[in-house]
Amino acid sequence: MTIQWFPGHMAKARREITEKLKLIDVVFELVDARVPLASRNPMIDEITAGKPRLLLLNKADMADPEVTRLWVEYFQGKNLPVLVLNSKTGQGINKIEAAAKELVKEKFDKMKAKGIIKPRAVRALILGIPNVGKSTLINRMAGKNIAVTGDKPGVTKRQQWIKVGSSLELLDTPGILWPKFEDQSIGLKLAVTGAIKETLLDFSEIVLYALNYYKDHYPQRLQERYSLEDIPQEGIQLFDEIGKKRGCLMSGGYIDYEKTAEIVLRDIRAEKLGRLSYERPDQV
Ligand code: GDP
């Protein structure tokens, strides 16, 4: 899928989210645990207009567990409740219901005391940029027994609710946010993690970005994977070394950068370099 956000798209996405927000009590903001800032919409506070929010660090199975732990501390320190997930296997999703209940407890208690509402399930919406795993998570939470609870009053469009556990209802379609592309590194991070298609950016540039990051943060992984004795100072030299090791040479002994980039990107995608994160809270 090619993602290109034009002002018109953004306005439409925002309108759709605003409609959905009217129906729900809490927002589940889904981000990629490897790039929790780049995969986030910076306008999220404004967009969600004060709805209680639970941040879900998805794809944690591919992220560096130590860095994910730091991110959890970081967001908790900002009073943003956070959970760590693997939506593919379902790991961590059993904690969502309780966390959602906790988020609305005060408001629900007050409304109940005033007799405004009867006890009812907490209604939630999943929000996130494309490819962070929204559909995967919705399917996981729905499980095999999708219990559609029907339309709610005041809804113009048909909205289906998925019942999760005894006290949570999830809107069956997520809210789609747009990523922020103003800073070039954001696009590169999203390309490395597969959130946007490589073809949108220069292939070698993506890999060079990743290699530079590994050089500083995961030098050992590089050494092991590509049997390097030393890690060069410059990312471009690293490119050369890996190209040589992998026999990516053109006539005249020049390094075939395109081929080298392809090999490295394939390794990244296949997790041959292990679990990696591309953002750390101490660099915010
Ligand atoms: P959406 O665009 O946000 O709805 O994203 P999808 O649900 O279509 O997921 C995008 C890709 O990420 C798919 O290939 C999923 O299988 C994969 N994916 C989703 N969640 C996880 C996860 O927790 N771990 C891993 N490894 N892959 C995931």
Automatic annotation (TrEMBL):
Gene3D superfamilies given in the database record: 1.10.1580.10, P-loop containing nucleotide triphosphate hydrolases
Location(s) in or outside the cell: Cytoplasm
Pfam family, one: MMR_HSR1
Keywords from the named record: Cytoplasm, GTP-binding, Nucleotide-binding
Entries under InterPro entries matching the protein: G_CP_dom, GTP-bd, GTP-bd_ortho_bundle_sf, GTP-bd_ribosome_bgen, GTPase_MTG1, P-loop_NTPase
Domain CP-type G, residue spans: 14-179
Family: Belongs to the TRAFAC class YlqF/YawG GTPase family. MTG1 subfamily.
Role noted for this protein: Required for a late step of 50S ribosomal subunit assembly. Has GTPase activity.
Name the record gives this protein: Ribosome biogenesis GTPase A
Biological classification of the source: Bacteria, Bacillati, Bacillota, Bacilli, Bacillales
Name of the encoding gene: ylqF
